[in-house]
Amino acid sequence: MREWLRWPVLRQLTGSDPLGRGQAARSAATDREHARTEDADEVVGSVCPYCAVGCAQRVYVRDGAVTQIEGDPDSPVSRGRLCPKGSASRSLVTSPARRTRVAYRRPYGTEWEELDLDTAVDMIAERVIRTRDETWQETDSDGTRLRRTMGIASLGGATLDNEENYLMKKLYTALGAIQIENQARI
Amino acid sequence: MSPDGAAEHPLFGLARAAQPGGDVRTSASGPVDSPAGGNRLSGPLADPSAEAGYSERHPERMGFFTDTSVCIGCKACEVACKEWNLLEEDGLDLTGMSYDNTTELGATTWRHVAFVEQRIDPSTRARVDIGMPGMGAPSTTPEEGADSDATEVRWLMSSDVCKHCTHAACLDVCPTGALIRSEYGTVVVQDDVCNGCGYCVPACPYGVIDIHPDNGGAFKCTLCQDRLGSGLAPACATACPTESIQYGPLDQLRQRAEQRLEQLHEQGMTEARLYGQDPTDGVGGDGAFFLLLDEPEVYGLPPDPVVTTRDLPAMAAHAAIAAATAALTVAACFLGGRR
Amino acid sequence: MAEAHPVGFQWVMEAKRRGAKVIHIDPRFTRTSAMADTFVPLRAGSDIALLGGLINYVLRGGHYFHEYVAAYTNAATIVDESYADTEDLDGVFSGFTGSGYDQSSWYYQGARINPAAGERDQWNDVFGSPDPDRAASEGESTPRAEPETDPSLTHPRCVFQILKRHFARYTPELVEQLCGIDRRRFHEVAEALVANSGRERTTAFAYAVGWTHHTVGVQYIRAASILQLLLGNIGRPGGGILALRGHASIQGSTDIPTLFDLLPGYIPMPQAHPNLSLDGFVATNAADKGYWGNIRDYVVSLLKAWWGEYATAENDFRFDHLPRLTGDHGSFRTVIDQIEGGVRGYFVIGENPAVGTANAHQQRMGLANLDWLVVRDLNMIETATFWKNGPEIDEGETTPSEIGTEVFFLPAAAHTEKDGTFTNTQRMLQWHHKAVEPTGDQRSDLWFFYHLGLRIKSKLAARRFERDARQRERDRPVLELTWDYPTEGEIAEPSADAVLREINGTDADGRALSSYTLLRSDGSTRSGCWIYCGVYAGEINRAARREPGERQSWVAPEWGWAWPANRRILYNRAAADPQGRPWSDRKAYVWWDAEQRRWTGHDVPDFDATKPPDYLPAADAHGPDALRGTDPFVMQGDGLGWLYAPAGLRDGPLPTHYEPQESPLRNTLHSTQRNPARQLYHRPENRYQPSGAEPGAEVFPYVFTTFRLTEHHTAGGMSRWLPHLAELAPAMFFELSPELAAERELVHLGWATVITARGAIEGRVLITQRIRPLRSNGRTLHQIGIPWHWGPNGLTTGDAANELLGVALDPTVHIMETKAGTCDIRPGSRPRGAELGTLLATYRARAGITEDTGTEDSPSAADARYPDVSDTDGGGDES
After folding, report:
1. Exposed, middle or buried, C227 (CB in 10 Å: 0-12/13-18/19+)?
2. Residue range A90-105: average pLDDT?
3. Is C21 an interface residue toward B (CB < 8 Å)?
4. Average pLDDT over residues C85-91
5. Which chain B residues touch A36 with a CB distance below 8 Å?
6. pLDDT tens digit string along B262-305?
7. So what's the pLDDT on residue C349?
8. What is the residue extent of each domain of chain C?
9. CATH class in words for C679-846
10. Counting C-beta atoms within 10 Å of the first and last residue's C-beta, which end of chain B has fewer, N or C?
11. Which InterPro entries does the record associate with it (chain C) (predicted)?
12. CATH code 3.40.50.300 for A36-94
């Protein structure tokens, strides 16, 4: 259709909407409107990351990016509904405030510095080994076995997956770190 | 215990019933109230879409019934709306109006939850003070019986939205055809058409539509026109945890609202009332109507809204001029283009 | 519930729609109160008085569910004759040592029962007893010890009579006095509760941290348990005591615990006992009766999951690879150890203690004294930036160049960027699928800990020959650790599915196990968390099941997977009467099918499916076999619901009203003001305030309680950075009554400063009629509500409520009191810089605060020091 044929006045005068209050005044963009969730490459089953009600979510993905997160109406827990925080999940995961790079602050430093991820993990591994050695307690003064380090502690877990908590507890316990805590205590 | 159909499911029956069919209308009622060939600017009108030129095969009129008696004030509707429609944050101000920091509908706020704190007499359920939103702090004078049970606190919450009037003055005055009646009977702004003239803003009897401060266009709730086209419910109704916001065919919603009202009255909540459901009111009934627990003013709603263009037909002498002007303006903006 | 769990609240609204009466009890009128049929305001910190009043009402009026109580609770069990009640000893139980309790006088007559939770290690009882060989006597032919009972419930020392005496003074008048709840309203609640309980009806209690964040937090829950057991509301549909937990997998992180005192599946971490072996551990932690009788199966399967082929029967399945505890190693103790220099390295993973933990200043002191700190989060939270813009920097107390902590901030992947399970508050595991790849350096915590572990293992392996024999021995648990998960993609993301399968467990042939009842102590099975065994039954990830709810029964068993064994209601044997019949048609849930000779119903029966109701165990039966056909509480050492807890709690077998650590009121119930066993830390940065009649208490005349808003989440790490949430609740505020505003000349929306002995914070004043003064103990009491979501970073910023709080803990679970404290409030914003310190010093001086303040009735029970420790390496470590 030639563009001028879409001129509303023309449609008005020739159609069922002589005053141009509906059908005749619709723009091409309005006619094309549809939910962007229809354009998703993939719809992925998920769970809300906020509280422990466990509302099911559907994550809509297009071109490798999250375009929308909605409640999953199939869930017997949530029946598709979300609270304001759950409704803000798309903003949470796509937030420009989220950091994408490691930040490093050296002792007594006054600013953040850049550090590549591999170096960071390697430095942390070195510090774990060193601290563990320096603070190792094999026994108490009576010779009772302790087999632990009191030099390394950890906090957090309630916002993580079970599998993550499991690897944390497993690795820490093997290292002999016992001061392992999360939000369940506080 | 056999899990039969959805309609009989003890937990999903109601949830699913709230979902619209999204089908084309099947009822026999056509555009009966609409005089042939003419447009009406006030009074009952059964099928605004038909009047706006949509064929008989257009969908049923869809709308919102907001039952404020079950609103928990969580604001999921506000967030879900902004997330879906990609509306920006519009102010980090603590207002002091109870938990309402949104204050009003606007170009980037299409749902607004009002919070009204009141003290009531528990026996009569009558207000013993005024709890208007925007009235600032409650009295700091300790009232008699402050630490007894003479009065109780009542906290009203209500999610406001564009009313999608049967007779929408914003649409009537729009010179560009940006504001139109949709096939669902709702009122939507076409932002590719809007030139930001702002005529619609004072025309709205509810103060809903607003000009965006940055891009200059007029914006308001579209009832998620894009989602409706895809068979989805609007974002706010989809999120609402307690079914305070119900979306569906307006006829069904009106019936359901009457039943709910009756139920509440039977339970002794005689203060419950419907607002905007009446096709004979000043705007021909709202496409988005409410069950309230107090006077509309208490929630910041006009008590007797009237379509501001009601008297337009009487101004017959000016009508032709107005129409011509409008047409020219449309032509100008269409050919010139906003972008 | 409407505030913090709005979507869960839909079911309350659904129940209300169907005729349920909703009662909301809270110091504040919240969005939940707005929906309730009845709102009952009470003084923060007085809930045990209210619950005790209800218990007394039920007992006195004979409203308890007699058949249920007689058959399913320990009402008939007789308690040791040395037991003395708080009613006899003016607020303390027998066995008080001055710094805690010797619990032996609380035991049952004739039998020592191990608790299913709480304090479990019974070393002294087992090895201090005349029968030290009991350790080796697991199972087989030893007669089981059974406590004495009196089925008529009339024996003066039976639990039922003790209960009656203990709560006799909890009258409506006392409730009115302590809680500020008038008698009319009390009766309204009590009558509704009783009318809605019994064969035909059940009542549920839902609670959150308003009940647990107290120095008597566990006893709050115990009080509710007693009430619900008396009314027959446990193990039945529509009943229960429902914990509404606040993080997506806080239940999971308790089940698979990143907690110091537990191993996966609530197996206790071993304590440091001389020559502790696996046998000794089992003997001190097992139960004679019930499923804890099989603890050896669970422990050995765990050790096998962790140390694989290296764990053999000959080496006690590497039991000695487990580190040993010596007391409290909870997070508050740890932070003090940071300040004192003992803790050098700290991982903070998705938590924000710099603003999110009580006495936030103390937390930051700890952070500032570390050698190294790893913070993993989505946003740049305050715990990562404390050295740059913490309050101590802003107020000029210190500067970045004085803080030696090395900080690694590692960006985390979001839930949409990784596979894994969350366990919700109903114990249900739900799988979330990875939707997109994380960006840049963002990684899952699974990735981080897997690759960190690999790196540490490979470094230790490579240095094998540099390290001496003792170091090599020390490295063995790490080097032998099973750590071989498949990875995928460019970033080598480990497979969460493989980890879940390891958690589930496998049999001798490496096939996924279907049930914890298949676990064995001979080393043939492996399971990383026995209660999760079955989540991968049939090699299917059952947490990922999403059969639509409407295509299922109302129990919806095919959505996700709930531990244990996909049961949706625990202890559901109690939903049937002793003969196995439903208590009523209306409340039928699980019952005995006499024809099929098995338990059946809407849910998976929480009982041996073929054990008939009339089953009686042999005298030498142990473990599950020792449970009678009428013992529904299968994890309990006697199979019964505990009205009285003979073990497991550090502060008494029954709940007793104590005032919070800081209260404007004197305890009028007895002269013991506070929980005498509570845990305190006497430190300069953690001073306590005087209470009640103590001089100086009037300096902090108001009660405050912290709370959450719907619009934010916890300390704000996942909400303050989001524009659509920040704009809805854009500023820190204090909620208070018009009366208090008038008394302190506070202006609506104006600034005010709240002051305690620890800190002073500013916020905007929100005057509201929703907060009303209470009459309590004859005086008018003002309460202030303080949300705790704020901190210096993000889109909406403000002072953190945790600056105000001191650290005073429940002794059993080491949880702090945040829900009832005292403070002062005054108009205007808080002073800056040195003046802030001056203000606090002035207040402390006015109240006469010393290191002993607030400790008068409780010696420092918590301050147990660690045992002397000798590093056998004698300082020969390289560094």
Report:
1. buried
2. 98
3. no
4. 96
5. 226
6. 999 999 999 999 999 999 999 999 999 999 999 999 999 999 99
7. 98
8. 331-419+440-479, 572-632, 679-846
9. mainly beta
10. C
11. Asp_de-COase-like_dom_sf (IPR009010), Formate_DH_Act (IPR048158), MoPterin_dinucl-bd_dom (IPR006657), Mopterin_OxRdtase (IPR006656)
12. no
